[in-house]
Amino acid sequence: xSSFEQTQFDLTGRxxxxxxxxxxxxxxxxxxLAQAGAMVGIHYNTDAKGAHETLAEIEKAGGRGVLLxxxxxxxxxxxxxxxxxxxxTGRLDILFNNAGNPLSRSSIEQCPTDLWMQAFQVNVHxxxxxxxxxxxxxxxxxGHASIINNLSLSVxxxxxxxxxxxxxxxxxxxxxxxxxxxxxAPDVRANCIMPGVVETRxxxxxxxxxxxxxxxxxxxxxxxxxxxEIAQAVLFLASDASSFMTGGxxxxxxxxxxR
Length: 259
What we know:
The chain has helices at residues 3-9, 24-35, 48-60, 75-89, 113-138, 154-157, 164-184, 201-206, 209-218, 227-238, and strands spanning 15-18, 39-44, 64-69, 94-97, 145-150, 188-195, 249-252. It has 259 residues and is α/β, with parallel strands linked by helices. The protein has a seven-stranded parallel sheet with strand order 3-2-1-4-5-6-7, sandwiched between helices. The mean pLDDT is 93.
C-alpha cells in the first residue's frame, strides 16, 4: 500500500459502529472497516450467529470488534448500543446505518396501516434514534466523523413488486441524510450509498431466482453485485478519502439507473 493510500484510507485509532452487521452488506462493511484499522461495533438484533461470525472473521485477521445487541426501534436499546460501544472504545468516529428490512410486499392501495408504520419504524426511526445518540460523540472526532446511511435502488424506481412502503421509507432516509449534512457540518459528514441488487440473504427471502436472473439481464455490467463491493464504498465514505463529500449519494447498481 502506498503512503497516499495509507493516509486516505487508514482508519487506525478510529471507532466504527455498523448496524445490522450479522450478514450481507453490514457484515462485509464491518470486516472491511476492521481491515482498515478501525475498532468495529458489530450490532445485531436477532442474528446472533451471524454477528459472532462477523466478529470471528475480524479477529482472525487481527482486527478488533465488539458485539452489540439491541432492537433499534426502541429508544432504550438504541441509546444502550451507542453507550456501550463508546464505553468500550472511548470514542465514535463512524456510524454506518445499515440495518433495515422491507418486511413484506404490498401495493399502496392494499397496504395495511401497520405495515406502512413498521416500514418507517424499521428503516427510518431506528436510524434517527441511534444517530441522535451518536452525534455528540461524532462531533468530538476532530474532523474525521462520518455518518453513512444505506438506501435502496427502490428510491429511484418507486419500489416495484410491492416494495412501495420500503421505498418511501428509504426516500425519507435520504432526506434525513441531507438534513444531517447541513446541521452537522463542518464537524460531521453525512452521505448515503444506494445499492442495486446485491446477492445476499435478503434477496433469497424476498426475490425469486427468476427475478434475480431478470435483474442480471437488466444490468449493463451483466451481473448483480456482492456485499464486498458495496463495502468498499462504505470504506471510502468512512475515510478521509471522501473528506470533501457530504449530503451525497454513491450509486452502486451496475448501470441499471443513471442520474
